[in-house]
Every structure is written in C-alpha cells, then in structure tokens.
Amino acid sequence: MTLMSTAQNVTTLAGSTQGFADGLGTTAKFDHPYGLATDSAGNVYVADTYNHKIRKITSTGLVTTLAGSSQGFANGTGTSAQFNFPHGVATDASDNLYVADYGNNKIRKITSTGVVSTLAGSDLQGFADGTGATAMFNLPVGIATDSSGNIYVAEQGNHKIRKITPAGEVSTLAGSTQGFADGIGTTAQFNNPMSLTIDTSGNVYIGDISNYKIRKIDPTGLVSTLAGSTLGYADGIGDSAKFYYPYGVAVDATGDVYVTDNNNHKIRKITPTGVVTTFAGSTQGFSDGIGAAAQFTNPLGIATDVFGNVYITNFADFGNHNIRKITQLQLGIFQNDIHSKVTISPNPVKTLLTIQIDNFCIIDKIIITELTGKIIFTQTQNSKTINVENLTKGLYFLEIYSGNQKMISKFIKE
C-alpha cells in the first residue's frame, strides 16, 4: 500500500497593508476583512468589513469588488448597493451569496450577477421571529447555508442561532439568554456566538467565543459541546482541549472542523469525534510557511473549498489585512505493505492497545510519538499488546516496523 505524507503549507492569497484596492494578489488591499465563503468554482468571497464591501478573489488571486460602496443601506446591483459593516458571508448550491449585514441588522442576498436584495430583517434592532422585514435581528455576525437552501445565522447581540427558510421565514433554532447550557433548542445558552458552519449531515457547529467552546446542534435541535473548556491553549479530546476566542469555524467534506483560535493566533482542527489538534500557526506575527513555521495575528474568518484548501482572514493594527490560504503540501511517498497485515484495537483506548498481526508478519520495532514528533515509547520485542494507561489523553501516532517496511497509524488515548 502506498501512502502520501503531507503538511500544511500557508501562503498569502491576497491583500497587504490596510486600505482599499482591487488588483492581483498582494497589490489588492482590504480593511479589516472578516467573513469568508467559497463557491463551486473555487472563487473566494470576503466581507471587507471596514470598506463596507463584498470582494471576490479568483483562484489566480485576482481581487474585484462584487457589491457595495460607501457605508449605508441600499439594495441594488454591484456598487449601487450599500452595506454597514458586513461580517459573515455564505454561498448556496446555486452560488448565491448571503451576507450578515451586521450594522444594518439584516440578512442580504447577492446573486452571481451582483444583484443585492434583503432576505430578512427590519429597520429596527431587536428580536422577533417572522417573515422577511417582520423579523428582527441584533448584530447578526455569522452565516451558513445547508443543502436545502436554509440559512443559519449566529446572532451575537441576542446570543441565539436563527434559521431562515428560502422564503425568508425566520425562526429561532437554539439559544435563549446569554450564558452556557447544553440542551434542546431554546433551553440551550450561548455567549457571543460569532460563526457557524454546517456539515453534510445537517449538524451545525458554532464558534461560541466567550464560552471558549465549539458547540454542535444536531438535526433534532440538540445542542452539545464538541470541544473546549476554559480559556487557554491545549490540544486534546473534547473538554480537555482549550481555546482563546474561537471566532471562525468551517467544515470540510470529511466532517473535520477548522477553527480560527483568535488570541492563540493559531488554526485548530477538530475531528468528528472531538479530537483537537493544531493545524497551523505558532506565535503571534506574520509569516508564510509550513505548519508551525507559519504565523498569524488574530485570525478571524475561515472557509474551506471543494479542493480541500482552507482560507483565513488575518488582520492586525500594524498591517496584515490579508487572506491566507492553507494547502496540503505533498512531502513524499512511502510504501506501507504491512498495513493490510496489522490492525490495532480498541481505538480509542484506555489501557491496553492490542496489535493484531498476520502470521507471516514479524514486528521488529514499535514507536509511539506525540503529534510534535517527540518519541515517548519504543518497543523492540514482538509483542501484541502495549500498555498506554500512563499516557495523557490525546492523539498519538503509532509506527510499526517490519523489515524495511513501515506502517503509521493514529490512536486516541481516552
């Protein structure tokens, strides 16, 4: 069996210093870019918040202005439309774009030709379910769509998650007063939900920033906590992991959730089972590079595309008003011919990890490493069990050597 070894390569797609300019790559300028979305062709859309515009970036890095002009409120086509600090953006299956128009407390819709209309929200800031302009929002910030064309809104001011049908009917999916509580629908509580994303099964994931957690709403309306606990930084499983203002969330085709961990200046990754790792980033700063060699400053928005790339908005007072792109860099190929002859169980494991070995496969060495590559266990005898009871909870790599062949597998210590 042949396996490809990969790493996360961080580059700058577009943007440079603070300002406004269309153009190619780093000749373009943004002013506090926030939300991100991608379409079926791989174009990236940016809520350019302080410029009150929606920008479009092609796969070649060409930046144009799709809609918006000066600060205000107006429907229309292209630059005849106006927004007021647009935050979240999301696309649907037809590549229509939806905007959480934060300062106008409205949800806007932009067609592929740049025609801007208002889907829901009134001229008053507040809270009311209803259809179209009878509904009220209080600082709508995050937005996402599902496969049926429904729109979901993370509402910072009301601490709720709202749902909008394609016809503009607004209801409350989850949340009540400010706080923290898991539960069904309005029995749950959030504390400044800032972003949300939806997987192919209809699960909604929320960046609940002031609770320092990633929350999940399943299709029945049950709210649970996927990962996170108190303020801090730690990789781990579920509530053993820690975040420091998890602003943006995005899900890929496999169900992995990516998080912009704002004050930790990192990009985190969460598997569907709640295993949290650091995907890219290290200390605060600005630097392109591979994995931990890359640097971010207060990353905010995040999106994935159909090709598996990840995009991040990044800005700071001293510059870096740009859009970063993370691709999977191929590091090399190795043969894994013993993979079909060796299995490990249980996984996750609490105490004894069992290795099931084909009679014709002799194991020469077993190594367990942390995600950083640090070796924490080595065994040279041909044993079929390993006691991992003393390992801390988390994700580990298991390397098994047989002759000149090597197998790498992952396991979770509970």
Element layout with pairings:
Elements: E1 2-16, E2 23-24, E3 33-38, E4 44-48, E5 53-57, E6 62-67, E7 76-77, E8 86-91, E9 97-101, E10 106-110, E11 115-120, E12 130-131, E13 140-145, E14 151-155, E15 160-164, E16 169-174, E17 183-184, E18 193-198, E19 204-208, E20 213-217, E21 222-228, E22 236-237, E23 246-251, E24 257-261, E25 266-270, E26 275-280, E27 289-290, E28 299-304, E29 310-316, E30 319-335, E31 342-345, E32 352-357, E33 365-369, E34 375-379, E35 385-387, E36 394-402, E37 405-413
Antiparallel strand pairs: 1-27, 1-30, 2-6, 3-4, 4-5, 5-6, 7-11, 8-9, 9-10, 10-11, 12-16, 13-14, 14-15, 15-16, 17-21, 18-19, 19-20, 20-21, 22-26, 23-24, 24-25, 25-26, 28-29, 29-30, 31-32, 32-35, 33-34, 33-36, 36-37
What is shown here, in short?
With 414 residues, the chain is an all-beta fold.
Strand count, sense and barrel status of the largest sheet are:
5 strands, antiparallel
| Global morphology | globular
How do the strands of the widest beta sheet line up side by side?
A: 27-1-30-29-28
Helix content: under 10%
Euclidean distance between termini CA atoms: 29 Å
Tell me what portion of residues adopts beta-strand conformation: over 45%
Q: What do these coordinates show?
A:
This protein has 414 residues and is an all-beta fold. Helix content is 0%, strand content 50%. The protein is built from no helices and 37 strands. It has strands spanning 2-16, 23-24, 33-38, 44-48, 53-57, 62-67, 76-77, 86-91, 97-101, 106-110, 115-120, 130-131, 140-145, 151-155, 160-164, 169-174, 183-184, 193-198, 204-208, 213-217, 222-228, 236-237, 246-251, 257-261, 266-270, 275-280, 289-290, 299-304, 310-316, 319-335, 342-345, 352-357, 365-369, 375-379, 385-387, 394-402, 405-413. The protein has a five-stranded antiparallel beta sheet with strand order 27-1-30-29-28, with no helix packed on it. The radius of gyration is 23 Å and the shape is globular.
